[in-house]
Amino acid sequence: MEEIKYRGKKREGRHRDTWDPFQLNPIGAEKESKRRCFQLAQYMVAVLVGLAVLTSAVVAKGSLLVLSTLSSPTSMRSPKEKQFYMLMLVFCLVFPNILVFMKSLWRCAFKSFVKPNMKTMSFIFAIECLVSLGTSTLVLVVMPQFDVLTNLFISGGVCIVSAILQIIYRLQRETWKIVFPICSLILTVAGYCLLGIDYYVRVSSFVDRQSADCFIYVGIGIFASLLVSLCWWENPLQATNSMQETLTELDGFRDFVFVISSILRILVIGAVYLIYHVLIEKSITWSDFNLQDKDWELLQIGLVLLFLQAFCSAACHWFGVVACKIHSVKMSFALPVCFTGPAVLLLGLILFITQAQSLQGAQSGSITEFCESLIHLNNKNTTPVVLLEITRSICRTSLNSYYLQWPFSMLALEGVCMWSGFVSCTYYVWKIKVQRIERTSQLFVRRLYESAFIDLSLLLNTKMKVPRAQNQESGDDMQKCVIYLCATMWHETYDEMLKILTSMFRLDRYRGDPNKEHSDCFDFECHIYVDDAFMTEKETGHRLVNSYVTDLIHVVIEVYRVFTNKEPDDVSIIMTPYGGRMMFVMPDGNMLYVHLKDKNLIKNKKRWSQIMYMYYLLGWKGYIVKNPQKMTRQHNPSRESMVSMYGDIFVLPQHDNDYKRKFISDDNTYILALDGDTDFQPKAVILLVDRLRMYSNVGAACGRIHPTGMGPMVWYQKFEYAVGHWLQKTAEHVLGSVLCSPGCFSLFRGSALMDDNVMKRYTTTATRASEYVQYDQGEDRWLCTLLLQQGWRVEYNAASDAYTNSPEEFKEFYNQRRRWGPSTLANTLDLLHSGPETVKRNSSISRLYIFYQMFTVGSSILGPASVTLMIAGAFQFVFRIAGTTSIIIASVPPVFYIIVCFVAKANNQITIAAIMSILYAFLMTASFFSIIGDMVVQGTFLTPTGLFLVSMAIMYAVTAILHPEEWGMIIYGLMYFICIPSGYLLLTIYSLVNMHIVSWGTRESSKGEGEVKKNHNMLCDRNCTLCCWDVKLQVTQESEKLMLLHMPGQTAQQTPALGITNPYSLIQNAEPEATVDTKTEKDVEEVKKHPGDKHKGMVVKGNDAASVSSDDTLYKNSITPSLSDQGDVEEDDDLMIAAIGEKELTVKEWVKPVKEEFLKKLTYANMKRNLQEQIRYTFHNNKDADDVCEELVLMLTDTLSRELSGVGPEDVLPETKLEELGCSLEEHARRILRINQMENLEDRVKVAIKKTLTAPQIKNLDEGEQDFWNKLLERYLTPIVDTKAHTEEITRELKSLRNKAVFLYFIINVLWVVATYFLQAIGTDVLSIKIPKLFPNGTETGQNLNVEPLSLMFLFSFAILLIIQFVAMLYHRVYTLIHVVAYRSSEKNYKEKIEEEEDDCLTLENEDGLSFSNDDL
Description:
Blueprint lengths: L1 H14 L20 H35 L8 H32 L7 H25 L5 H7 L5 H10 L9 H27 L8 H15 L5 H6 L4 H9 L1 H27 L18 H27 L3 H10 L1 H16 L11 H7 L9 H12 L13 H18 L14 H4 L10 H8 L8 H10 L2 E8 L4 H19 L3 E2 L5 E8 L3 E3 L6 E3 L1 H18 L6 E6 L2 E7 L5 E7 L8 H21 L10 H4 L2 E2 L4 E2 L2 H8 L8 E7 L3 E2 L1 H13 L3 E11 L3 H24 L9 E5 H4 L5 H4 L6 H8 L2 H11 L3 E13 L4 H24 L1 H7 L5 H15 L1 H17 L3 H21 L2 H33 L5 H18 L11 H6 L1 H14 L24 E4 L12 E3 H10 L25 E3 L6 H9 L10 E4 L21 H15 L11 H8 L5 H15 L7 H18 L11 H21 L6 H11 L4 E4 L2 H15 L6 H39 L6 E6 L5 E8 L1 H37 L3 E4 L10 E3 L5 E3 L4
Parallel strand pairs: 1-3, 1-11, 3-8, 6-20, 13-15
Antiparallel strand pairs: 2-23, 4-5, 6-7, 7-8, 9-10, 11-14, 12-15, 13-14, 16-17, 18-19, 21-22, 24-25
């Protein structure tokens, strides 16, 4: 209700100024805000991950302590049991090495790695062997000799080498923080000393008959701890850049090193076990390993403890990584890991208190009596056994002394010292800040974790990142990123244009607002490329913008008005060799360019638009950035480069990103490819940027595309898109690389597009039939194929949502898929053909992945036959027809439709397909319910058909549940099911038979062409969408001829933009009319020969006598404000000097009607609203001046109303009125500011007034860019003019290719159907697989199901494919959740910054003390 009242209040304000206050309010135009449910979910995930880390660490550590206690020589277990428990300890140490070996071997086998350096590799092997020696000695030799409390405390000493290296290299940013590693070293040494003193007291006090041999184990334990602490030697060396060359070299072949080192570690562990327990202690009896049936009970406790220790240590490591990635380092990682030791101690104490009464002797009075009363329990495999051994181990401490029990406090103090030592050594973990989503290799030094010391391993393995402050560099890296949003338009409707413009303005508000706090720092530009933007005006032959461009202009104005409550401020209309360009400064300072393509001057369609912006943004802009001397030179650079939009001094917006890009590499230059109807949120862009920033080998990333629209065809596509993204795209992402990043919403890396054989190859003009299919019918997939073949990876982010319109009509859908189907197959076959070479180049594509794609391609090729057999099964099931007969009947419709497609026209083919689809839908519905009825009748679903149907339903249901925001898509599954014959049989036939048709097939209407119809002798009629509705401008042919008689050969003189001496004075020259004839084949040839001369020698026919004088005004939007009255005079002189030497500006016919659309901002109603918003924005940083701001708004509004009292609300003001109005507004503003003693804001207010009264600019490109476009057109983008002979030849080749593809498809599918037919004809009794029929409870019915081997094989293969995709989806879902939670934790929060009071004067000073202020400027 409050929102309705707010909108009503705003509408009432507009209604005071105009009778048309109503406006569109696009969905999503309101400011984004954090949803409470997401915030709650974020905290819940952080808490759950923290609990998982703590629980798994406690269980892993406790299990190891219990195993070491059970295998102790002083344990009450039998020698045979101790032998098995010791073996379980060995397996606990071996398990993480096996995991690392398998993962590294996989990466070495299917990924690329650098040839290892033997010297470096030998050094690593030596360190790994020493670490493994220390770990196995400490766990297998020392810990069984100690009590459980000592074993818990002694592990804290493994941080000693890390502390020493931190002290040596002084890794702390602040000097005083060196106290932490010094304290860690002191505390650790003190703990070792207390350990020795404690055992000395035990020996001297005869505690539990402790022998003097314990001192040997104490020494060995300390030495082994030192060896273990070598494990994390890389961390401090990486932080200090020592051995940087060696460590960098190691990253290239780390996988290979881990393969060998994991084997060496396993061998060392085995050697220590055998040497000590076989040769020294001789405690191994080999015959005891031959277990009898009753002896397997001995393994129950050991196997459970082994499983808990191995699984929980791996889980703890994984959850620790997750905690860091979701930005919950303190709460979910550092806190639970640091308190693992105390938690284990507390848990043991709780268990002892609650379970002690189950032990005999619990009623004893003293601890010594209790320890003496412990006897061997007979029940071997119950909880008291573990509790008994732990209690017995505690009784070996000084707590069981008859003489002195106070030495037990030394053991407690030892624990405190050890725990404090490793916490202070890893203090940096509490301060570390990570990027939104980090790679595991960026978070941790080693991939391997030490399961025996899982808590210390996680902390010590976390990268320090102290000297380089990489935790803060991540923020800097975000700023060193530029994104070019490039949308291609092809006959979009008004509502579709509204979606893409709203999305761009949302991103502008998200990124550009300087008063909002957020961590996503990047620069971006918006580019819209409009194909087929011009039409030829009848009778005159002039090229004018069509109604699509007019709609786009209206959309820009409307969206700008919604987001800012005013008209566009800075608008430039630029004439270009390819047509035209409109340039806008968006509300928050980012740039929007609209490129209007004339198909008579440049190739149209999407691929050529992509080539156009790739060469312009990556080629041309990258070139001028790398060659600053090539940048546009202004006549007055000191003034042109310091421009004020809101009174602040900075570079012109259109040059800002070019200037910043000098410091940005091509790797951090991104292009976001969009369609003209895409709707997205800023979050979607940020998530894609994260993927490219995290992995340097990712060349492109795509998001989750949601089709929008209404009707059955859209319902079918909703489920089709959902299943394709849920299963297929996730499987491609996990198993290898995504094959297609759709052009409607994909982010490309600039360096990937600029790579060899990518952008250059992408410019290839199709000349052969196969090239027409692969290149022009699916340009997005071909571009991704080129990236994959060059070694780049393409990824999929399921949380990056984008919405695009989908075909709502059956015909449009079939024509769209007619393009997509053959192109998909052609590009996939191309990738498979180059598979061996691609595997060598691309580390993400393995031979197994190539095999997976071969399997999916084979399945798709056999799709028509499979659907035909499914239909045959439906006939057999519903009508009880014999199997062979049903196959013949089911084969008739496909054969009939193939014949129809060869002989009928395309529209008739689609009509027949629609009719057959309806009939098939009825059959599929009957089949669906018949299968369910048959399962009910038979009382079981455990048949191949029933089991497959039920399992598919369960799998899709689980998949939908795992996508909570999309679970509603499952409703459309039934529609998808009944349309399977249409989508996989009829559509395949239609797309193959019509492969020779290479037209776009969708949005082929050209409503703008020839739309303007002239009356008799009417030369110009502006009473349509090309002009303001309340002004009727007409020029007859007679009046034009009269002007030509009076002004022969006159050339219009346009004053250059920089030559304006007074912002409100308007030049009285009328805009010329230039002759543009209809483009013929001969003219196109001339353009090819002389692309740079097509704007020269244009004949000026005359002036438009009916145009109002304000239409001919050229304003410089971004006029540098004078900082004093004297500065005004100096500025005018400079601008006059700058005007000298400017070329004459020849204006084309299409410019004037476009300009007239933007002149509506000079009406009374619009100027009033614009002035109010401009003044308010001027004061947005001065919170203390709100009263002055409102007073100024009120006074200036009254002045405006008084000056324009006789002007209608929709009348465009003439230039004389604008000049008088500007002077009056400036005078009143100056008076108010001086009264309130705020003269420092006078310049800003003057700029706001000027921007309110500024008309659009008309420009030409600078010479450098003009030359670039001319050469680009000549080299790549000249319109193709095919001769009749060439067209006939291509048609013949396309039909030949079509015939070959149809024949191959037909043969393969016929062979499959015929094989199934003969198996049916032979009979199920002869050739069949008998499967016992089961009831749902698992009992046999006594009957057998006869299944053909071929059908079972295909069903089994399809089931395996679905299982692989389902498992990949589960894996992908987990990491998508991690990414989403990480984003939500760093999401932009719309909170106002606390602005500091501004200085009255800006002063800049350099290192030498030279300073200047804004007055000097």
